[in-house]
Structure formats: C-alpha cells, structure tokens
Amino acid sequence: MNTSTTENGGSLWSEIIESTRTIFKSHVNWSLAYVITVVESKKGYETLRRSAKLVKGERWVTLKILMYYEIVIVWMVVWCAMFLARGEQWRSFTGILLTAFTSVMGYILMNQYLVANVVLYMHCKELNDEKLMSETAAGEYVSLPVEEEEKNHDVV
C-alpha cells in the first residue's frame, strides 16, 4: 500500500511540475502576442506563431522579464492583502492609503512590463534581421493633409 501511495504521489507531483512547465513555456513563447497584434495587425493563431518565432533566441530573457514582474506584482499584492487582513485595518486611513498606493504601483509595474515587452519585440525583430517601421521612414518628412473647410467647432 505504501508503494502505491508513493507512485500516485510521485505521478501527481510530476503532473504538477509538467503542467507548470507547459504553462511557463506557453507564456514565454506567446509573450509578444499582444504587441504583434497591435504593431503588425495580425490575429489569432498567426499572432501566437509569430510570437513563438520571434522569441526563439531570447527565451531566457523573456522568462527573466516575466518572472521579475510577476514576482514583484504578486509580492506587492500579497503583502497588501496580509496587512489589510489583520483586524479592521482596511477601514483605517492607513488601509485606504495602502490600497491606493498598491493600485498605483500595480498600474506602474504593468505599464513597465508592457514597455519591456515592446522593447523585447524590437530587439527580437532586430535579431531576426527584420526592418522596424521607424527605419523605413527615418529622416523623411511626412505631410499630413489639412482640411481647408471651416467646420463648426462649437463647444457644447
């Protein structure tokens, strides 16, 4: 009986480890998908394939970026929740300030994560010898059409 428990426990742990590995691998491979969706106007599985192709040589860098921001954000949220869970802390002025501070810091960190992924996207495109959009129009003056018609600009 002890042997079957060890086998079942062993297989459970191996399934947990394999599932975690698969989740991280998918997240790393698809980390540039939302940047590609906006910049290259691709959709669906094409975006995921493109992201996996671009990240191919920089998976460790992508994993480090992912782990840094996830650890910092999760640590901050858990710390705030633990502080607020003590008694009536959430009703105090300190609790309100802490909640506001945590919200603002979470917003800032998520924006930094977005910028880090955009920079990683540009770096990966450079490694794959693909031209960036800024290089194609660099130094050229782009004139925008100006409408000469007078429009009603009344403020309501």
Automatic annotation (TrEMBL):
- Protein name stated in the entry: Uncharacterized protein
**Keywords associated with the record:** Membrane, Transmembrane, Transmembrane helix
- Looking at the UniProt entry, the stretches that span the membrane are 66-85, 92-110
Instruction: Classify the source by domain of life.
Output: Eukaryota
Task: Say if the entry is tagged with keyword Transmembrane helix.
Answer: yes
Instruction: Show the PANTHER family listed in the entry.
Output: CSC1_OSCA1-LIKE 7TM REGION DOMAIN-CONTAINING PROTEIN, OS08G0107100 PROTEIN-RELATED
